[in-house]
Structure formats: C-alpha cells, structure tokens
Amino acid sequence: MSKSLAGKTALVTGGSRGIGRSTAERLAAEGALVALTYNAGKDGAEETVATIEKDGGNAFALHADLVDAESIPHLFTRLDDEFTQRKGVRTLDLLVNNAGNSGWGGLADTTPDSWDTMFAVHARAPFFIVQSALSRLADGGRIINVSSGAASRPMQAVPVYSMAKAGINNLTHALAMELGPRGITVNAVAPGWVRTDMNAAVRENADMAAAIEADTALGRFGEVSDIASVVAFLASNEGRWVTAQVIEASGGYKL
C-alpha cells in the first residue's frame, strides 16, 4: 500500500464497529496515527486497535458518550494528551464524523427523548466536534462526515434518522465555505445499504434483501470496505480538489 497518509493524524468517531472500524483500519493502513472513539463498544474498539497494530499500524481508542455535548471538549483534551505523547504535537489532520446510533423509529413510536438522542449523536455531536477541533485542525486538513442516502431519499421507517442525516449534508456545505480559506476540505459520504449489524434484521428477511439488491445497480449490499475506500480517497492528496460534496456510495441504489 502507498502509505498516502504517512505522518498524518486522524480521529474517527464510532470506530469500534461497522463503517467506522473499517475506516479506522484503512486510514491506519495508509499510514495515519488513528484515534477512534467508542461508547458501549469497548471490546470492539480494543479489537480494532489490536488489528491495526497487528498489521503494523498505530491507533488508540478513547471513550466518548456523544449524546452528552459537554463531554466533547474533554474528549479533545484527552486526544491532545495522546497526540502530544505519541507525535509531540496535538495537530489533527483528518476528522471523520461517523458515530451513530440506531435509526429505527417511525412516526408512531418515536418519543421526544428518542428524537433528542438521535439528533444528539447524528447532528449535534458532529457540529460541536468540529467546533472543538478548529484550533487543532491543520491547514489543508480534511473533514469527512458519514451521512446516508436517506438524507436525500427519506425513508418512511426512519424519519428522524433521515432528518438528522439531511442536517449533516447541510452542515457539510456550510463548513466547506467557512474552512475553505484554510485549505480544509469538507465532504460527506452517503452510504446506501451496507452489511452492518444495524440492518442485520433486514438482511435476514430474504424478500427484503432481494428487493434491495434488485433496486441496486450493482446488485448487492455494500461492504464496509467500500465506504472506507471512498473516505480514504477524500482523506488523501488525491481528493484535494473535492469539497462541499455529498458523495453517494450506494452501488446505484434506486437510480
């Protein structure tokens, strides 16, 4: 592998499983020192770090409950300490806002508390993570937000999730304008149906799985590595002229 991110530092939120784990592993394989956050998934986070280190990369995990916005400055204090110990500086080159929680909750069964929790993790946390990262982000750095195809094609079964992800797309555009003068690119990657534990029940339903595959131009569910590859491109120098974009990585779902 080219080690296109050698010498860079990265923060991947929600890096203990799924897309976040694959992204953390890919960025580390490209040479970045990767910090990944987890909430309930301590074991998964430790496994991710162990896998990265086994493959010759460098990573560490930090606990962060992103439902609580007041915890975010404390997360960055710990991140500063780790980067300073390992690199001698607290500079952050790559920020991947990936952390999420379950999106299943429709109009009839959503409560104010579940609505708040969904927005806290998917929309509010990325905003305040970027705010805390501003003084650490290197000029010419990268911010990559993990959105969803549901942001532009809302799903009846997950209206709150769809709304929150639409907010991430809007934030991506606003940040790209604000941070462009510093050479910082800001983009979102919008997956379609990807094999993760979040949608395991859907994939176990043969009829639903077949319908999704039939509606996808490439005829299959995505793999987490498919999304990580797009993130890695945007994080690299090859993605330097791409900003303010929401890049759908769905295999051509519902064209």
UniProtKB/TrEMBL annotation:
<comment type="similarity">
    <text>Belongs to the short-chain dehydrogenases/reductases (SDR) family.</text>
</comment>
<feature type="domain" description="Ketoreductase">
    <location>
        <begin position="8"/>
        <end position="193"/>
    </location>
</feature>
<keyword id="KW-0560">Oxidoreductase</keyword>
<dbReference type="InterPro" id="IPR057326">
    <property type="entry name" value="KR_dom"/>
</dbReference>
<dbReference type="InterPro" id="IPR020904">
    <property type="entry name" value="Sc_DH/Rdtase_CS"/>
</dbReference>
<dbReference type="Pfam" id="PF13561">
    <property type="entry name" value="adh_short_C2"/>
</dbReference>
<dbReference type="InterPro" id="IPR036291">
    <property type="entry name" value="NAD(P)-bd_dom_sf"/>
</dbReference>
<protein>
    <submittedName>
        <fullName>SDR family oxidoreductase</fullName>
    </submittedName>
</protein>
<dbReference type="GO" id="GO:0016491">
    <property type="term" value="F:oxidoreductase activity"/>
</dbReference>
<dbReference type="InterPro" id="IPR002347">
    <property type="entry name" value="SDR_fam"/>
</dbReference>
